Write a sequence for this structure.
């Protein structure tokens, strides 16, 4: 059992190598091998769920080996209720993008599939690392396949977008590395990069503040939060459909995950100190970016901005906690625990749900782009007339994006708004405007693209989705609805870990002053 | 019983899913049979449930079906609360829905989306059941938005029509404004009550009463006002009424089902359901009453100048919803539900009759181009007359009892402004009679203004259209007479509604003055509303039959007033300029100035060194070597990893162990 995670990380990476070896010339075989690997990894990842013990917050499926011994860096992996759902989201999404690229990618198809497989492995590595340096290595490594995907299979302006993406995220994470090294150096004998050690490492408020902002840069760029979000629309517009899907569905979640795994437990006092700043930025993301999304003429840009707005709920849900509860002097938490759980678990649910919905939205745009090679809203109009089945899916996902109850999009937003109100009425007030703005930009796009009379002859010749496209969209539709109707299993999985995280976030690391 | 409730709620959903997924293969007959069967099952069960709870006094059913989410000690479930209020709603919803299903067979016969339409209206019925059967706020919100979704889909059903797809977007967004308040209300309620379950909430109401927020505002007042914002959206109260007239772009059967009888009354139902908390806030109740009165009076006035047959009925619906809201405001919840019920029957009837006229007229909807239809369409004519008499509150007909009780309840209310509201609702009677009979006379009486081609083909509509008209005409005529006493005075709704009768004595006063339904009729000729109604009919007759040129003369003489009415008080224009164009402008500014100019150009690219740096990285890769670059990075990473693997204890080698 210890090696299950290890297999999940390396099987897709090595499998990617195999697919490259089969080569672009024999792409038929390569594609099938790629799909087979992706499905196998997904199936294996489900055993993480079935074998998971929901009663404990301890790390599970742990593998701990020495790696670079002179620095006491260990190959230490394991999962808890926060990382496990994200890993399954990763393995799930990878299947989708590989199938989605089936006929569409003509240029180096085998390399394309291989890039996604390798990225899958690396991202699973990110979510399961329990050693900070191992985390950092996977974190940076995940940039490479994405850089390639945008840079090789992207649109016209792909190189600018790829470099902007790379520099933004790379510069952000350099500070992460610096702060990790700092924390290592102050430990003295037996220093370690183990997250468990860092979680217990006492730090003054000044130290915590520097570290907090270093972490923040790395994670905020990834989420992305306002004002470091401008790389995302460019990257999405230029990326091929599959790249956008993985970017939105998974890579953004690495940022949110970082806040859970690093910021809250390692710098709890600084997190509390600066929570309001993060909340204000989150609310700006939700409201301001919503308005920006409204005026986009490019469908992918619109969805990209919509992603930023939705990810604002993640950071809002996480950082509201400091306004809801505090640690009492007797070690008992004062305040509404349910309010905090709603925020933290709502943030997690929002990440997973956004993984499904943004993936679906980008695939929807991809279906249109494959046919007419345009992402402009104005190219389309009355698509329902020639693609009724497709429109059914598109409207469903649009409604999920607008947070309709009964879809997963509702659950996270609902939880976070309920929680935010307990922190401050006006947080919830601003966050809830997404009900209006989110519906406005999403459904206005739906109206212009799908409803109305057929605007031009190109639209009238569109052929409805084929079986492969139907299959992908149908799977996502099921996921979106099931999670909207019955979110309890997902909530249950993460609850123990969230309780533990809350304890860490509220336990001060400052030296006791008498 | 649980299985009965479950079957009742799910059978329309099952019908909807079967037809929605396989409608094309099933064909039309099978599709409508399946969905009608689903709703028929619900109707029969609803009658059974009604009998069990209301007539036999069965215990209130309040149980959770499954846990939607368990967060610490907070349980959010999907479950049913079935009491007498729910039972009444179930009967109304399922019966009207069944009639509309049958009617649709004839109405949509020429439409390509025939099977899809049946799937949608069955789905709607399911969503409405979930709304009225809910035992908690999460599920209420689910039903609330789900009916909104189906409404959106059905208003835009003829998606080729630009006006239809504009109207459905508008409807959804305006409803979302209401839902925004509604959701905040739910969130605030959770913060102070710590639960989303109705029963637990009501039990804690007295405890929370007295707590304050925003300085010295009562929490209960704020919660009630926020919840009421939701009701204003769904039940189309001023200023969130603007979506309802536009919803007439949808096919007529859904105007009857969704935008008259059921969905738009969800707000009324919700406030009645929440009576234990609304009773604690006179401020909230006063707001509810005043908003209702404004809607009742001013939306009725707009009905007078409309010439589209469906829009007249739509404004009439707005006005009647205002009446129900007024009733809520004066704590006469049972009266509101009573009017909701009578209105559901006679307004569904009026819409379906309008639809019958529209079909006969080959989709002409302008009442100025009709006239004299009574001879050609006798069934539609008679049933319309019944519906119209019920609407204006002609003594004996269903609407008479419910509207009279609302007016009387206002009369007995002690709330501030109740006196003004009383005048508004009495004046409303005149207006209702005026616009209703104006339309009735223009359509069915006088000389025919129908063009000759249509005239030749003009005949009564098919039996699947006329049968529901007759079925609805019966309750429109008699249901008020038979149900007023049990519903208002002898306890049908008692186990669902809480009234603080010490301060809110309207219903108690009504009960004191009530002798019998028959006495109400005989007594009515001595009341002011009766003569207002007669005056309204007379005025309508005068201007639309006796001296039609007078109407034009008045319109010219009072040009300004006429302009205000025809421009619908300028709500649409205001919204268009301020909200629609304003938010686009704002979005554009934020995007261009803040996002692209300041952040991207100035901070990111504008910093000269950064730009040069980007340039130096881009230059070589622009020649197409990016792939090689990345390849070397991977190779580099591989080398590092290999070194690590070889030098250290190799994790890969440990794979199997």
């Amino acid at each position: 059992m210890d090696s299950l995670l290890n297999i999940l990380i390396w099987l897709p990476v090595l499998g990617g190598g195999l697919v490259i070896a089969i080569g672009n010339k024999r792409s038929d075989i390569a594609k099938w091998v790629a799909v087979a690997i992706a499905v196998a990894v997904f199936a294996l990842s489900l055993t993480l769920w079935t074998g998971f013990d929901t009663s404990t917050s301890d790390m599970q499926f742990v593998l701990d080996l020495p790696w670079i011994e002179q620095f006491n860096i260990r190959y230490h992996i394991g999962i808890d209720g926060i990382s496990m759902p994200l890993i399954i989201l990763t393995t799930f999404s990878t299947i989708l993008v590989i199938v989605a690229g089936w006929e569409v990618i003509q240029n180096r198809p085998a390399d394309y599939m291989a890039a996604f497989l390798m990225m899958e492995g690396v991202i699973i590595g990110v979510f399961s690392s329990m050693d900070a340096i191992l985390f950092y290595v996977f974190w940076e490594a995940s940039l490479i396949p994405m850089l390639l995907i945008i840079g090789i299979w992207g649109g016209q302006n792909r190189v600018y977008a790829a470099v902007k993406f790379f520099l933004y995220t790379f510069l952000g994470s350099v500070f992460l590395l610096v702060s990790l090294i700092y924390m290592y150096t102050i430990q003295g004998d037996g220093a370690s990069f183990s997250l468990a050690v860092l979680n217990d490492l006492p730090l003054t408020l000044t130290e915590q503040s520097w570290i907090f902002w270093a972490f923040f840069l790395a994670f905020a760029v990834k989420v992305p939060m306002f004002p470091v979000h401008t790389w995302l629309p460019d990257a999405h517009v230029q990326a091929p459909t599959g790249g956008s899907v993985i970017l939105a569905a998974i890579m953004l979640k690495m940022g949110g995950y970082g806040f859970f795994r690093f910021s809250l437990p390692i710098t709890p006092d600084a997190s509390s100190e600066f929570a309001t700043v993060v909340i204000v930025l989150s609310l700006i993301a939700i409201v301001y970016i919503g308005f920006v999304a409204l005026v986009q003429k490019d469908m992918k840009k619109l969805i990209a901005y919509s992603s930023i707005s939705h990810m604002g709920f993640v950071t809002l849900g996480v950082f509201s906690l400091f306004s809801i509860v505090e640690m009492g002097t007797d070690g008992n938490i004062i305040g509404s625990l349910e309010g905090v759980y709603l925020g933290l678990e709502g943030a997690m649910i929002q990440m997973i749900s956004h993984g499904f919905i943004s993936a679906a939205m980008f695939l929807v745009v991809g279906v249109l782009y494959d046919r007419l090679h345009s992402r402009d809203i104005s190219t389309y109009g009355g698509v329902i007339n020639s693609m009724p089945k497709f429109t059914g899916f598109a409207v469903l996902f649009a409604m999920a994006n607008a947070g309709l109850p009964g879809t997963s999009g509702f659950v996270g937003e609902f939880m976070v708004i309920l929680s935010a109100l307990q922190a401050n009425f006006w947080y919830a007030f601003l966050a809830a405007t997404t009900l209006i703005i989110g519906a406005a930009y999403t459904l206005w796009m739906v109206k212009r693209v799908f409803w109305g009379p057929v605007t031009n002859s190109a639209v009238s010749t569109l052929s409805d989705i084929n079986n492969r496209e139907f299959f992908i969209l149908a799977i996502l539709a099921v996921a979106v609805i099931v999670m909207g109707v019955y979110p309890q299993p997902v909530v249950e999985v993460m609850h123990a870990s969230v309780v533990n995280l809350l304890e860490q976030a509220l336990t001060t690391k400052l030296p006791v002053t008498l | 019983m649980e299985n009965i409730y479950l079957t009742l709620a799910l059978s329309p959903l099952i019908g909807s899913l079967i037809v929605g997924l396989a409608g094309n293969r099933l064909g039309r007959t099978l599709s409508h049979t399946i969905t009608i069967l689903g709703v028929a099952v619900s109707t029969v069960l609803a009658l059974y449930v009604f009998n069990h709870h209301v007539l036999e006094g069965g215990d209130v059913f309040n149980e959770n079906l499954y846990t939607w989410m368990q967060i610490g000690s907070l349980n959010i479930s999907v479950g049913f609360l079935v009491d007498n209020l729910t039972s009444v709603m179930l009967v109304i919803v399922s019966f009207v829905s069944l009639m509309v299903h049958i009617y649709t067979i004839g109405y949509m016969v020429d439409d390509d989306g025939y099977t899809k339409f049946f799937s949608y209206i069955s789905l709607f019925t399911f969503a409405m059941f979930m709304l009225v059967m809910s035992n908690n706020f999460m599920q209420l919100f689910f039903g609330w938005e789900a009916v909104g979704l189906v409404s959106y889909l059905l208003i835009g059903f003829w998606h080729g029509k630009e006006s239809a797809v504009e109207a459905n977007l508008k409807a959804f967004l305006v409803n979302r404004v209401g839902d925004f308040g509604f959701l905040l209300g739910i969130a605030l309620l959770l913060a102070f009550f710590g639960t989303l379950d109705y029963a637990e909430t009501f039990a804690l109401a007295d405890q929370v009463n007295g707590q304050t927020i925003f300085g010295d505002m009562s929490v209960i007042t704020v919660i009630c006002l926020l919840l009421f914002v939701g009701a204003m959206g769904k039940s189309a109260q001023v200023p969130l009424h603007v979506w309802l007239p536009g919803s007439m772009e949808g096919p007529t059967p859904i105007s009857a089902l969704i935008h008259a009888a059921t969905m738009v009354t969800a707000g009324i139902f919700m406030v009645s359901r929440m009576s234990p908390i609304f009773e604690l806030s006179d401020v909230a109740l006063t707001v509810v009453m005043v908003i209702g009165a404004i809607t009742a009076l001013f939306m009725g006035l707009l009905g007078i100048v409309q010439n589209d047959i469906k829009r007249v009925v739509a404004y009439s619906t707005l006005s009647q919803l205002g009446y129900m809201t007024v009733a809520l405001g004066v704590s006469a919840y049972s009266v509101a539900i009573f009017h909701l019920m009578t209105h559901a029957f006679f307004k569904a009837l009026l819409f379906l009759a309008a639809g019958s006229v529209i079909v006969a007229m080959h989709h002409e909807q302008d009442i100025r181009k009709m006239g004299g239809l009574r001879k050609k369409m006798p069934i539609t004519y008679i049933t319309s007359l019944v519906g119209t008499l019920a609407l204006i509150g002609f003594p004996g007909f269903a609407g008479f009892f419910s509207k009279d009780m609302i007016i009387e309840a206002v009369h007995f209310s002690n709330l501030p402004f109740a006196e003004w509201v009383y005048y508004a609702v009495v004046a409303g009677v005149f207006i209702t009679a005026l616009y209703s009979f104006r339309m009735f006379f223009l359509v069915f009486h006088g000389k025919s203004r129908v063009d000759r081609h249509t005239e030749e083909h003009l005949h009564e509509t098919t039996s699947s259209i006329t049968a529901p008209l007759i079925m609805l005409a019966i309750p429109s005529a008699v249901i008020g007479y038979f149900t007023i006493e049990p519903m208002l005075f002898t306890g049908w709704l008692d186990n669902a509604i809480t009234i603080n009768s010490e301060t809110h004595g309207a219903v108690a006063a009504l009960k004191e003055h009530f002798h019998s339904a028959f006495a109400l009729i005989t007594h009515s000729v001595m009341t002011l509303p009766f003569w207002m109604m007669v005056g309204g009919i007379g005025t309508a007759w005068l201007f639309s039959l006796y001296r039609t040129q007078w109407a034009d003369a008045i319109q010219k003489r009072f040009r300004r007033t006429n302009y205000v009415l025809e421009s619908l008080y300028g709500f649409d224009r205001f919204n268009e300029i301020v909200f629609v164009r304003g938010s686009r402008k704002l979005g554009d500014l934020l995007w261009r100035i803040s996002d692209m100019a300041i952040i991207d150009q100035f901070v990111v690219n504008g910093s000269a060194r950064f730009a040069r740096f980007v340039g130096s990285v881009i230059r070589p890769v622009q020649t197409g070597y990016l792939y090689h670059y990345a390849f070397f990075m991977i190779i580099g990473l591989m080398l590092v990893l290999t070194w690590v693997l070889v030098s250290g204890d190799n994790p890969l080698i440990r794979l199997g162990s």
The first helix of chain B runs from residue 2 to 26. Strands of chain B lie at 61-71, 74-82, 212-213, 217-218.
